[in-house]
Amino acid sequence: MGERRYRSASGAPVALRRRQYSASCRELAVRCPRLQLRSLSAVTSAVWLAAYGLFVLSENSMVLSAAIFITLFGLIIYLHFVKVDQESLLVIGSLGIQVTSSYASGRESTTFIEMGQVKDVVINEAIHMQKVIYYLCILLQDPGDPQGVSEVVPLFQSSKPRLDCLIEVYKSCQEILEQRKTAPQSS
Fold first, then answer.
1. What CA–CA distance (Å, rounded) separates 102 from 87?
2. Burial of 165: CB neighbours in 10 Å, binned 0-12, 13-18, 19+
3. Which residue numbers in the chain have pLDDT < 50?
4. Which keywords does UniProt give here (predicted)?
5. How far apart are CA 163 and CA 176, in angstroms?
6. Same-domain check for residues 124 and 152
């Protein structure tokens, strides 16, 4: 369907890509900015310059070796566990909702929620520091109490898109959830 540009809660650019596979199957993906080589080089240079300064003062070569090791190890950890490139939401009306996070290293983390467990998809608000931020979440139905909520699953936690982007995702999810609610009545 195309890609639209938005901003995250911190002001960074994000892109929302929508794909509609059928009337009851949509994929919504929020893409975060890529890791900038300039910022990576600046951090690496700062750490290595500080290590070189300590080496000059202490005349111990282990300081340089430790700085190189810590920088490389930290970068691998950051790329594999922290830096998310894309978060996607695949909503299939008859099956469920699949939430996927793609990391900068290529690793993917996927969670599937059966449609029978989904009570609703809502936009919630939270106060963070001195501002209100909005986030999309899935409310899971409590098995013991049909009117209750057992768990709240927040979505797009790394990209943190602003409200205008969340509204578009919310409307797409609600269209599919409404189809699911009206389908059993018509058959």
1. 6
2. buried
3. 186-187
4. Membrane, Transferase, Transmembrane, Transmembrane helix
5. 20
6. yes
pLDDT of residue 186: 45
Let me know if residue 20 belongs to a domain.
Answer: yes
Q: Do 70 and 125 reside in the same domain of the chain?
A: no
pLDDT in the model for residue 1:
65
Global pTM?
0.84
Same domain, 71 and 21: no
Task: Report the alpha-carbon distance of residue 69 to residue 21 in Å, rounded.
Answer: 46
Q: Which residue has the tokens 């209750």?
A: 148
**Enclosing domain of residue 49:** 37-81
Residue 6, CA atoms < 13 Å, CB-side half-sphere: 24
Residue 11 counted as domain residue: yes
Residues 146 and 105 in one domain: yes
- Give the containing element (helix H, strand E) for 153: strand 149-154
Q: Sign of dihedral through CA atoms 105, 96, 116, 136?
A: positive
Task: Specify the pLDDT at position 187.
Answer: 41
Our count of domains for the chain comes to 2
The pLDDT assigned to 169 comes to: 96
Q: What is the pLDDT of residue 87?
A: 97
Helices (H), 91-162: none
Q: Which H or E element spans position 65?
A: helix 62-77
* 61 and 20 both lie in a single domain: no
- Residues 58/40, Cβ–Cβ less than 8 Å: no
